[in-house]
């Protein structure tokens, strides 16, 4: 029996469609060949295989919806696996392991106000939570989304952002670090958006994902606004290979980001020197 | 379990019998080193080695191992789980402790099927050390004796006799393959016990840990920002030798390889090490342990604290291999533990 099973054997999935989100980021929609949904929770990731090139971890950006047999990832072209992914055509196969890791605590969020803080590609995993909530909009309180991008060219999911900003029941604020001539919106790092919103700290949960340097500053600002540590959830990126808590690459002090994370409650990592 | 007596002259025929069903590895002297290598008929076995140079983990978790075969056309893949029956003969207690630790780590959460398959086919025959390596400090790391993790445990009680403690049913079967052997008398067992005490006493006379090892995790917890990390790591070459040679280190990398015709390929894993520069670096250039001292610190934190938090035992068994293998002479856990303890106690 042990010879038959190995957690390293990926399941097959087929590329259904591709959509360019920015110069370097593409949205991919896959379906598993076994016909089943991924059955993930928002915040989890999968290990994607391109045989002969390798494996790389990607957040699942689609929400878990029972009737949807597809899943989506949004990938920045930056190295070997990500380039190979960009070269795929509809009908091509990939391997999938997972979903792996912890997820955002959806039950805790019910009935609460939500503050999403997305830096750059951090919007990708948060979109899974957000779109799930939009689908069940009446189950949640206020929804606020802050998005920070380096420059207007790197913005992703622009259509969705524009659609959401038209809605009464979602507040969207965007900023870019470095504007260009086309940009009419806010300029500055993401922390400059926080003073522009009003929250009820006791009733608000924060979900934030962004580049490593973002967390320290944004968490400090959130605390200043009166949000307690146990209401702040972050997703951390690390180098990953196995996704099984074995290979060691993703360690954060004594934790394995791939099994203990990637989503952490800030309370659980506040004392870890290597986390933030 | 029971203990028996085996005489030196009985060994060759036992070995021959075992070799019918197992690959048999025994300690041998090779130049300046001792290695655990396959037994050939008539081979001399080194019962008085101080430490085996090759870390025992390599027999359970080889430095290169295929995980999958895949077909680039059909995208089909199948697991590769290779395991041959093997006997590791002559393993010192600290190395058995290291295996016991790997057993737990590989079992936690997701079971490592490749490791497990090999481990299930591996017979461990322990051996009471007769000499202590110059760099060893196992007697201070709760690693001078193991209560489990062996099928048989051998203690040389004279020029040509061993007391053999049985640790498993399979161990007993192997001991009796050529017929039953004598039960050890109380006196013989007493000699074995004294041999153990003698070697532990000898080990305790060198490379002294100046405080109880149970305090190591506490000392490490207070030492994250110690200047010792920067001070000591200045000479580090980030070569990873201290990782590769360590019997309790088990980090790995996974990569793909494709045949010349681009038709088939395999996914394999190789040993990796947290001391290597790019171990925690990600695409785009960010490195979560960019500085040498951060990597240097992480290794000791694993050994002295993080593994303890996971398993309730230290991640270093005191074999001293890393001390010997470090080209910069800075990979000494004992020295670091003692130093930090003094530092932390002084601060109080
Ligand atoms: C939990 C998690 C979720 C992620 N989600 C996304 C996402 O939704 N979209 C996206 O574009 N990127 C995401 N990333 C980053 C993405 O995994 C890397 O960009 C990708 O691994 C680069 O692979 P490569 O082969 O193209 O690059 P190369 O530089 O060629 O990398 C070689 C190998 O190193 C490892 N590696 C390199 N960078 C990373 C990294 N950042 N994280 C983990 N392993 C790495 C991988 O095993 C990779 O195959 C995520 C990373 C993690 C850890
Ligand atoms: S850290 Fe060094 S002394 Fe400790 S078990 Fe590893 S190799 Fe042996
Ligand atoms: S063996 Fe020595 S030089 Fe090499 S990585 Fe370890 S501490 Fe650094
Ligand atoms: S990715 Fe291997 S331990 Fe986390």
Provide an overview of this structure.
The complex is a heterodimer of chains A (276) and B (348). Chain A is an alpha/beta fold and 276 residues long. Chain A folds into 2 domains: 11-100, Beta Barrel (Elongation Factor Tu (Ef-tu), domain 3); 106-269, Nucleotide-binding domain of ferredoxin-NADP reductase (FNR) module (Rossmann fold), CATH 3.40.50. Helix content of chain A is 19%, strand content 31%. Chain A is built from 7 helices and 15 strands. Chain A has a 7-stranded mixed sheet with strand order 10-9-8-7-11-12-15, with helices on both faces. Chain A has a 6-stranded antiparallel sheet with strand order 4-3-6-1-2-5. Chain A starts with 10 loop residues before the first strand and ends in a 7-residue tail after the last helix. Chain B is α/β, with parallel strands linked by helices and 348 residues long. Chain B is built from 11 helices and 11 strands. Chain B has helices at residues 11-19, 93-107, 113-120, 169-175, 186-204, 216-221, 228-233, 241-244, 292-311, 321-325, 333-347; strands spanning 3-7, 23-30, 33-38, 64-71, 77-79, 86-91, 122-127, 152-158, 161-166, 252-258, 264-271. In chain B, the strands form 2 sheets. Chain B has a 7-stranded mixed sheet with strand order 1-9-8-7-6-2-3. Chain B has a 4-stranded antiparallel sheet with strand order 5-4-11-10, with no helix packed on it. Chain B is globular and about 65 Å long. The mean pLDDT of chain B is 96. The complex binds flavin-adenine dinucleotide, iron/sulfur cluster (2 copies) and FE2/S2 (inorganic) cluster (FES). One iron/sulfur cluster binds at residues 236-242, 275, 325-328, 330-331 of chain B.
